[in-house]
């Protein structure tokens, strides 16, 4: 039986993981999963269900049975049969997602789902802990990094030129929570190739990664 090709791409917010992963998966003709969409979907569920992040530790694990998240492609997210794709990039979700993502039971549940998705497929999976926790045996691991300034500028272009300082603060806030949490913090896996992409564009980033994968 042929072993599956698993490529993990991790990195901080707005480092280009998603765009790189989508293009790489397309060029290699394999699947793609943005695990951040799943953390955003579960955050949306908790906010809408008024489940406070401070109390969730006490919540019965049965709650996860009520949460059905599907990510059919790189952009769409279905939560309990409702398309929430346009709801999960709101400021409300942005502000809370890294808090819920630091909760052990949330991570266990989503990691299990992500591992199931990868089980029988060739896939590029992007996130914060793919190389370290979700797919520790991935064939290839990359960690995209980029200066905070360059990331804020990229995000500004994406979000109708919101103020630079504001973007920088928002990205930095999530990075700090993601890097400093106890469970599955955002760190490069020991065997990851670090790709610092401040001065290379999307196509160059994908080419660099693809050359490593195919050689
Ligand atoms: O990738 P994106 O910025 O959409 O992810 C949103 C948030 O989800 C991150 O800031 C992080 O808190 C959380 N996340 C995570 N682990 C992942 C993917 C995302 O903790 N594998």
In short:
This protein is an alpha/beta fold.
Under CATH, the homologous superfamily reads: P-loop containing nucleotide triphosphate hydrolases
Spell out which ligands are present.
cytidine-5'-monophosphate
H-E order: EHEHEEEHHEHEHHEH
- Record field, number of beta strands: 8
Number of domains: 1
SS-based class: alpha/beta
Question: Which features would summarize this protein structure in a list?
Answer:
single chain, alpha/beta, five-stranded parallel sheet, 46% helix, 8 strands, 215 residues
Question: Care to describe what's here?
Answer:
The protein has one domain: P-loop containing nucleotide triphosphate hydrolases (Rossmann fold), CATH 3.40.50.300. The chain has a 5-stranded parallel β-sheet with strand order 2-6-1-7-8. A 3-stranded antiparallel β-sheet has the order 3-4-5, with helices on one face. The protein is an alpha/beta fold and 215 residues long. The chain contains 8 helices and 8 strands; from the N terminus they run E-H-E-H-E-E-E-H-H-E-H-E-H-H-E-H. Helix 1 (17-28) crosses helix 8 and helix 6 (148-158) packs across helix 7. The structure holds cytidine-5'-monophosphate. Residues 13, 35-36, 39-40, 97-98, 101, 127-130, 174, 178 line the site of cytidine-5'-monophosphate (C5P).
């Amino acid at each position: 039986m042929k072993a599956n090709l698993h490529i993990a791409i991790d990195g901080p917010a707005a480092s280009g993981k998603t765009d790189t992963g989508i293009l790489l998966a397309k060029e290699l003709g394999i699947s793609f999963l943005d695990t951040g969409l799943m953390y955003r979907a579960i955050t949306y569920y908790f906010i809408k269900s008024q489940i406070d992040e401070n109390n969730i530790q006490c919540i019965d694990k049965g709650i996860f049975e009520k949460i059905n998240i599907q990510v059919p492609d790189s952009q769409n997210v279905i939560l309990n049969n409702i398309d929430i794709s346009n709801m999960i990039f709101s400021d409300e979700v942005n502000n809370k997602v890294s808090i819920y993502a630091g909760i052990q039971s949330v991570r266990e549940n989503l990691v299990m789902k992500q591992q199931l998705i990868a089980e029988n497929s060739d896939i590029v999976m992007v996130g914060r802990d793919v190389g370290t926790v979700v797919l520790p045996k991935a064939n290839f691991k990359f960690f995209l990094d980029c200066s905070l300034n360059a990331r804020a500028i990229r995000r500004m272009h994406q979000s109708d030129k919101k103020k630079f300082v504001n973007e920088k603060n928002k990205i930095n806030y999530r990075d700090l929570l993601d890097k400093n949490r106890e469970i599955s913090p955002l760190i490069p896996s020991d065997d990851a190739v670090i790709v610092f992409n401040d001065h290379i564009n999307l196509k160059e980033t994908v080419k660099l990664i693809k050359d490593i994968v195919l050689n």
